[in-house]
Amino acid sequence: MSIDRTSAKVSIIGDPNGIPILPATGDLIALDSKRNLLYYLGDTEQGTTLAAVSTINGTLICSTVLPVQEIGFVGFGQSVNFDASTDELIISGVVVNSTTNATAHLLMKASANDCGPFSIIGRFGDADYVPMEHASAYDLVGRRLFIGLATGSSSFAVGIIDVDKGVMEKVDVEDSSSGKFLVGMKWHAKSSTLIGLENFPDYDHLNLVQLSPKSGKWSLKQLSTDFPVVMGNSGSVSALDASSDVLFVLLAANTTTQDIRLGQVNVSDATISQTPSINGELGLGLILSLIVPNES
């Protein structure tokens, strides 16, 4: 489906019965505007499956099963990004050795044409961390993949993967022992930070969160709004329009309402400009992912 960014009007693309490959909820999607393809990581009987869908008519163009495991949840510890500069898909995920039961974190890439085949370009032991669900972002210019890492029961770090070298640097985040972490992170090139939203404890406002992957330091800016609850799997359903510097998120007035809003957060001045209702279009339907054509 497509959603008008101003009115939140929903248009169904293609077969209303949907696509047979179940998608995960969150940011496990990538858009190839040149080919008019939406890639996503989903689930089939064979396991984690990459699918490519036409954004013109909604048909399934290709799919392939990936050599990564689903641990606990569909999409756990996985990421998918499209690098337009090299015409490649960059995917990461966790594998488990069936003999030793040891786990490893893999980085793979492939030509964006025909869903692969993929080659492994990095392998990282994860004895001291677990890749987090729906916590990744991609720096197109620097060719760096950022992933959220759970380094303990309540501690958080950022993994910075050099895609060309296949090596990862781990940066511990300040105050992560308090359970603070960033879900649904986006790379904000203008400030060289990772950004996202955070509910305030009493739900009277939101915080725009910016995390420096270089220093591991947080910056919080309060957002005033009548819709202070972040929906969409704790904010992982979001999209950044780099050209207009707007972060699109799903918001609500409280935790029990069925009225979901498409919030537009102006990152530069930490304000929310529009919040049109989506559920007037979808009823009780769910938005599983958001992406904008010129995201970078």
Helix tally equals 2
Q: Write the H/E string, N to C.
A: EEEEEEEEEEEEEEEEEEEEHEEEEH
Report mean pLDDT, rounded to a whole number: 85
How does the major sheet shape up?
5 strands, antiparallel
What is the CATH topology descriptor? Neuraminidase
Radius of gyration: 18 Å
The residue fraction in helices comes out at under 10%
Characterization of the model:
- This protein is mostly beta strands.
- The chain has two helices and 24 strands.
- A hairpin with a 4-residue loop joins strand 14 (155-162) and strand 15.
- The chain starts with a strand and ends in a 14-residue tail after the last helix.
- The model has no long low-confidence stretch (mean pLDDT 85).
Which helices and strands, and how do they pair?
Layout (H helix, E strand, L loop, with lengths): L1 E2 L6 E2 L10 E2 L5 E4 L4 E8 L2 E8 L5 E6 L13 E5 L4 E9 L6 E9 L7 E7 L4 E10 L4 E9 L2 E8 L4 E6 L13 E3 L4 E7 L6 E6 L6 E6 L5 E2 L1 H4 L2 E4 L4 E7 L8 E6 L4 E4 L4 H4 L14
Antiparallel strand pairs: 1-2, 3-5, 4-5, 5-6, 6-7, 8-9, 9-10, 10-11, 12-13, 13-14, 14-15, 16-17, 17-18, 18-19, 20-22, 21-22, 22-23, 23-24
Would you summarize the structure shown here?
With 296 residues, this protein is mainly beta.
Quick tags:
mainly beta, 2 helices, 296 residues, five-stranded antiparallel β-sheet, globular, Neuraminidase
